[in-house]
Amino acid sequence: MLMPNGGLIQLQSINRTFMLGDSQVHALRDVNLNIVSGEYIAVMGPSGSGKSTLLNLLGLLDRPDTGIYQLENRDVTSLSQDELAKIRSERIGFIFQSFHLVPRLTAEANIELPLVLSGMPTKERTKRVLQALKEYGLEDRAQHRPNELSGGQRQRVAIARATILRPAVLLADEPTGNLDRVTGEEVVRLLEELNAQGMTLITVTHDPVLGARARRQIRMEDGGIISDVTNAPTIIT
Amino acid sequence: MKPLDTLRYARDAATGTPLRTGLLLLAISIGVAAVVILISLGDGARRFVVGQFSSIGTNLVIVLPGRSETRGFNPANLVTSTPRDLTVDDANTLLRVDGVLRIAPVVIGTTEINAEGKLREAMMVGTNDDFFRVRQLKLGLGRFLSKDEIGHGSAEVVLGAGIRREIFGAENPLGKTVRVGDRRLRVVGVLSEGGQGLGMTTDELLIVPVATAQAMLNSNTLFRVLIEARSREQIANVKVHVLKVITQRHEGEEDITVITQDAVLETFDKILNVLTLGVSGIAAISLAVAGILVMNVMLVSVTQRTAEIGLLKALGATSTAVRQLFIVEAVLLSLTGGLLGTGLGYLGAGLLRHLYPSFPAYPPLWAVAAGLGTALVSGLVFGVMPARRAAQLDPIQALSKR
Predict the structure, then answer these.
(1) Min CA distance, A209 vs chain B (Å)?
(2) Which of residues 132-191 of A touch B (CB under 8 A)?
(3) What is the ipTM of this complex?
(4) What is the pLDDT of residue A225?
(5) What is the number of domains present in chain B?
(6) Is some CB atom of chain B closer than 8 A to the CB atom of A2?
(7) Which of A199, A218, B8, B204 would you label with A117, given CA atoms 20 to 30 Å apart?
């Protein structure tokens, strides 16, 4: 079953249960999944179907109870917390529904945060942040705090922050959930551009329109994958 | 994460909530200021007392009438408990003791001085001409008492500077006659202003010959005999011999107490040091309270910044990095508070010195070290728990909190 090469992510019989009071909740039930580098995936399903748990697991914020998770052909289920933190820093970018910007920091400082945490020298940091600000059209907003930015700008800052270390996987949890239609559309287009550049994009969403745009759609229910459809690549003319 | 970045992040986190940080700094600085001021007070009291004792002279041996009993039961006490008088003759005999440089008998009583139509109460000291040198007094005008060879007492008085000012004002009092009690005495000198010693200022004194004072007070006994030894080394020797001579003169009964300035100084020094430590211990309690406040504020901060901590972890911060951020913030807060408090303490001590110029309330260096050190340690100790809680936070739950 395991693909020796080319696979970015391989999940093998992953199980994850939570204790909610006295009852046991089976958040993930025997999940098997192969993701190749550069894919564009939408994970859909009703609330409580386990899609968020799957995303957390893929983002190394959570560990499976049983099963094997291989990221870039490396078994990450047995790594220590600090090793996981290092992989999160270098290989994974998170985008959240509520942006999760640090309110007291400027847009610039928010984007710089992953670089600061990774211990990059200041000079290199400034260069990269400047470039990111330019790429995402945030140059005139650099010194603004999150509460002085519009929703779309906030999510752009968050995307810039998630991608500044050029991660292999971009995990987006309802990235348009707090945005209106137009800005949501903008943000999705931005994410798709990143995907087109080769970054693997995995979105969790309720929105069928957003889900339909992904090349591969995974539907979940009760902690298990019920359908996994890959559309023929649409040719953009 | 680099140390400098950690520091900057912690600083931004602290300044991000100005009111909370301000109140916390206030609490810590008050604690530290209390330590510094109270230690200054204690140490100032010690210096004050030591200064007072040294200012009464050097190499002093003091003879008091009466025995402070430290040897348990003595049959002599059954027969007679009244001490014999310590007389001027006793004092004069002491001049012959080996190692004694000079002596000054002292009689003290309150009396009235009446001159120029003004009347006031004053403390009268009866003594001899050597008192001037034994007590290391300074004269403002005229001369001190003359030598009284016969011991009849001449009608002379030396005024304290304060009394002179109140009665004579700017006028020259030398040669004028004043009425002291029932005697008419001639003013021969005025002491210079600001003399101190054993809690009384010499400004308010009248100094008269010992025989005159004894006659006025109708008493034969001396209040004290001050003895100046030739050198510091001879003090112990003088003490023993003085005791022996007086005991002989008092028919074998040891009814005087001899104390040395050194012993008294040392005792006071010890007592006041302990007092200072005790007082600063009390002040340290306020610092401990401030420390608990630091912990409380940091715990609230962890709860309020749950989402931020989750984010940091998602962005690749290790538990160690998160813990460091919070500990550094706690230490930064307590250190800043400590520095502010030290400044406040210096200000307070300065104010004390301004209000009571004679009181040397200088904060000693160790007080500053103690205040800062306690603040720092309490910041570290009380910062660890919240930092650990932050580091152990589950990032998923932290992030799901909006």
Answers:
(1) 24
(2) 161
(3) 0.87
(4) 92
(5) 2
(6) no
(7) A199
Q: Are B204 and B148 part of one and the same domain?
A: yes
Residue B211 has pLDDT above 70, yes or no: yes
A86 contacts B402? CB cut-off 8 A: no
For position B83, what pLDDT does the model report?
62
Which helix (H) or strand (E) segment holds residue B117: the answer is none
Top-ranked range on mean pLDDT: pick from A69-73, B220-224, B284-288: A69-73
Structural domain boundaries in chain A:
7-230
In 3D space, the residue among B375, B287, B335, B364 whose CA is nearest the CA of residue B39 turns out to be: B364
Pick the residue from chain B with its C-alpha nearest to A115. B1
Confidence class for position A237, pLDDT limits 50, 70, 90: very low
B279 plus B344 within the same structural domain: yes
- The CATH number, out of the four listed (3.40.50.300, 1.20.1250.20, 3.40.50.2300, 1.20.272.10), of the domain defined by the range A7-230: 3.40.50.300
The span from the CA of B64 to the CA of B80, in Å, is 18
Gap between the Cα atoms of B329 and B123, Å rounded: 62
CA distance B390 to chain A (A): 15
Closest-CA residue of chain A to B5: A116
Contact A104, A144 (CB under 8 A): no
Question: Region B306-333: what's the mean pLDDT?
Answer: 89
State the average pLDDT for chain B.
Answer: 84
**Token digits of residue A122:** 């200041």
Domain holding B369, by residue range, is 3-53+266-400
Region of B137 on the Ramachandran plot (φ > 0 left; ψ -120 to 50 alpha; else beta): beta
Asked if B316 lies within 8 A of A114 by C-beta distance, the reply is yes
Domain boundary (B227, B248, B283) is at: B227
Assess if residue B78 is contained within a domain: no
